[in-house]
User: Fold this.
Amino acid sequence: MEDIKALFPQFEPELMNEIIANGVIKTIPAGEVLMRTGQFIKSTMLILEGNVKVFRENEDGGEFLMYFLQPGEACAISIICAAKTEASRVMAKTTEETTVLMIPLQLLDRWMLDYKSWYHFVLSTYRNRFDELLVLIDQVAFRNMDERLLSYLERHAKVHNSSIISLSHQQIADELNSSREVVSRLLKKMEQRHMVILHRNAVEMI
Amino acid sequence: MEDIKALFPQFEPELMNEIIANGVIKTIPAGEVLMRTGQFIKSTMLILEGNVKVFRENEDGGEFLMYFLQPGEACAISIICAAKTEASRVMAKTTEETTVLMIPLQLLDRWMLDYKSWYHFVLSTYRNRFDELLVLIDQVAFRNMDERLLSYLERHAKVHNSSIISLSHQQIADELNSSREVVSRLLKKMEQRHMVILHRNAVEMI
DNA sequence: CCTCTGGTGTAACTTTTGTCACTGTGGAAG
DNA sequence: CTTCCACAGTGACAAAAGTTACACCAGAGG
Assistant:
């Protein structure tokens, strides 16, 4: 309860009370899928602890990382889909043990009107995700794989606050929608240029 | 005035009055840039007539088409940037003579609170653009140039309500951030498969 | 008519990325 | 200590896309 306040200091006290009264706290182990493409959204999630990756999927199982959700953030897509009562267009997966606060969607509309702080929170969530999508589009539209790989690693390091990225080449390739060999090749080049050090199941940034 | 009401039937009468009192109608010739990357937004635009293309730009002059704006729509980016008082991250260009209604940004915040219909309009604008960006990301993440070209042509035909796309190969290539030769090559293949007919400065869809 | 220009067609080539095939290896499980 | 197996390295090749270079042609404007 105190940690919720610390994560969302902008929320007014009455809103905090409603959140505490109506929200359900759920802890999800690492690597769990917490939203599936095509699934209907029944509640919105605020991230309290841990880390979530949000993916776009295509028909034949390809994944494509869109962005990370961190403590103090909410999933814009879930709010959007909830508002449209549409099926989710994305898949979300925990990367660590993650605690979320689930809020039934019927409350969202009323809160928008009743609580200014909620209204601002939702709008800034929309805006921030929108901005992230623009950056992502830049990447795929204008950058080659080597640059995309580099900024993927940098982003990952930043989000996890560690210069060591604990992922196999295969996992990295999946999230960039590329192939393991390509990632291995590019990482090897980066190692030769002393940009990274390669370990088993991990890449260390320099 | 009557056409504004017809385009935005959802707006309540008081809001319409404010729009008419405060909005400035401006007509922009075809091919004009009406928002530049890096420019600060001083007003939001509602499209009344014509057609606008919204692009993402990179450092070395590359363009990348994001979406079209049509009568009855608003530019989500301008609302977002205005709200953050940030520089525009996109470039917008008219493709036909276009009439827009410019609304000073200081009104936007108040309208959100005062007019439910404006609030819903802004939210649904956010949502729709968000959805379009998701589709765009699919295209560049999962599709090859031939498929992207095809859906570009289809989208163009739909927006302009005509099976003839009046663009040179060079213009098409620019908007897909590809090169003229690649587009010519792919269009030729499509012609051999009887999917299109090629004319000078135009492509006809079948 | 002639000239010039921008649009188009196309071949040859390079670069980038994806795919296939195979090797080696670290570390967990037996 | 073996046996596996997921992970990683790498060469060879294929496919997609970008680049270079040049030829041709339609139509605008003299």
In short: Chain B has a mean pLDDT of 92. Residues 144-146, 178-179, 181-182, 185, 200 of chain B lie near DNA strand D (CB under 10 Å from a C1'). Residues 64 and 176 of chain B are 6 Å apart (CA to CA).
